[in-house]
Amino acid sequence: MSRRTWGTVRRLRSGRYQARYTDDTGRQVSAPSTFATKADGYRWLAKTQTELDSGRWIDPKAGKEPLQVYAEHWVETRLVRGRPLAPRTAELYRAQLKNHIVPSLGSTPLRQLEASSVRAWYGKLSGPAGPGQVTAAKCYRLLRAICTTAVDDNLIARNPCSIRGAGQERSSERPMFTLAQVQALVDAVEDRWRALILLAAWTGLRIGELSALRREHLDLKAGTVSVKSAVIDVIGQERSYGPPKSAAGRRAVAIPPHIIGDLEHHLATYAQPGAHGLVFVGPKGGPIRRNNFASRVWAPAAEAAGLPAGSHLHDLRGWGATVAARHGATTRELMHRLGHASPAAALRYQRAEQERDAALAAAMSAALRHSDGTTSA
DNA sequence: CTTGCGACCCATGAGGGTAA
DNA sequence: TTACCCTCATGGGTCGCAAG
Fold it and tell me: Which domain-ending residue is among A152, A171, A189?
């Protein structure tokens, strides 16, 4: 047994043992409690040295506050690249804490937060009674981020959020429409909304872009629609028309010629007058409100057209992108058409199309094998 | 009473930036 | 490259108000 070089253990008058070491500022630090045996004291020293070496020394007095208190303080003081959280993000985090994290874990002191209790919490949240996998993943990531800070602050030794893949979102498969369904939809809506549905399907414009569209943005001779602005609906603020967030959002999209006639009819009948006039307005001339449009125009039309339950206007965008991919659009062309700054989304549509093509080829081969009838019974 | 509308809320979908 | 964190848009619901 070699002699210890780091820290000492001494016997106190009471007969118990005290472990101490000198920290790098020269201050002598004692163990939070005494030990019954000398060996226990040395064990504590060894553990503490390991933790110090790996930068994970935990102040035994720290981490006693409930998770709720720490988490709320975290949201208030969190800095991202030197700046506080954006208002919307802070609001979202507070809602996630209040609704999904605090009810189960809020009263647990930070240092008592175990991986097992996090697992149990996440299991319930992502289960059938929970709000859904995507929300569960978001809440898990928030909790993990908070705990990462706590580890950095030496309040806890390890991050109890250690579930592999729990933070990854698996967004549900969106329904894919057939051409017949899209046509049925166009026929199902009132005449006033026909052009909007057509434009959404065949150009892939977002609802916010469509509702901000003005006459001057539609060039029916050239067959293009220019996306210059979008409606920004922020809770607690006036609705405003602003430029799309990214430069890629501003774009001119070619309109398939077969819907030009419908657009001409629409402009002549429903759009506000003047170059600045909004193209799509409600029966009383007001701009489109997303919520009302979804529940009062889209929902009944989607049902009448026999679209799968849970279909959204936004799915038309995916349909338009897939059709474009099917007709040979390059990644760059798809990005432009959809107003994406990164190729990731465009690649998804192309991949989906390739998979569909491969599945079709496989089905044809299978059908051929079957009709041969030569395989053994 | 019904209908249209707007404010607000929570849930979900999509994408950017970046450190590992 | 990719996982992670952050940001913001859309979806869909409730509620209250006011006009018809």
Answer: A152
Cα A278 to Cα A271: distance, rounded to the nearest angstrom? 6
In the prediction, which pLDDT does A135 show? Answer: 74
Q: How far apart are CA A274 and CA A201, in angstroms?
A: 26
pLDDT tens digit string along A327-349?
777 767 777 777 665 555 666 66
Q: Are A185 and A302 in contact (CB under 8 A)?
A: yes
Q: Is the pTM of this model over 0.70?
A: no
Q: Which of residues 71-90 of A touch strand B (CB under 7 A)?
A: 81
Q: What is the mean pLDDT of residues A284-298?
A: 69
Which structural domain range is residue A98 located in?
Answer: 67-152
**What is the tens place of the pLDDT at every residue in A43-60?**
766 666 665 555 444 444
A348 domain residue, yes or no: no
- Distance, Å, A54 CA → C15 C1': 55
pLDDT beyond 50 at A243 = no
In this complex, which protein residues place their C-beta within 7 A of any atom belonging to strand C? A 78, 80, 83, 85-89, 92, 138, 141-142, 144-145, 148, 165, 167-168, 206-209, 230-234, 245, 290-291, 294-295, 298-299, 310-314
State whether the beta carbon of A167 lies below 7 angstroms from any atom of strand B: no
In the listed set A287, A313, A339, which residue is the last one of a domain according to the structure?
A: A313
pLDDT by residue (tens digit) across A185-232?
Answer: 888 887 888 888 888 888 877 777 787 788 888 899 998 888 776 554
- Cα-Cα-Cα-Cα dihedral sign, residues A252, A343, A319, A245: negative
Tell me the CA–C1' distance in angstroms for A347 and C15.
42
Residue A212 lies in a domain: yes
Do A39 and A107 lie in one domain? The reply is no
User: Each residue of A106-160: pLDDT tens digit?
Assistant: 877 877 777 778 888 887 777 766 666 677 777 887 888 888 777 767 677 777 8
DSSP secondary structure string for all residues of A304-368: HTTPPTT--THHHHHHHHHHHHHTT--HHHHHHHHT-SSTHHHHHHHHHHHHHHHHHHHHHHHHH
Question: In this structure, is residue A160 part of a structural domain?
Answer: no
In a domain, A371, yes or no: no
What is the distance in angstroms measured between the alpha-carbon CA of A232 and the sugar C1' of B18? 27
* Cα A371 to chain centroid, rounded: 47
A147 and A71, same domain (yes or no): yes
> What percentage of chain A exceeds 70 in pLDDT?
58
Task: Measure, in angstroms, how far nucleotide C5 C1' is from residue A138 CA.
Answer: 10
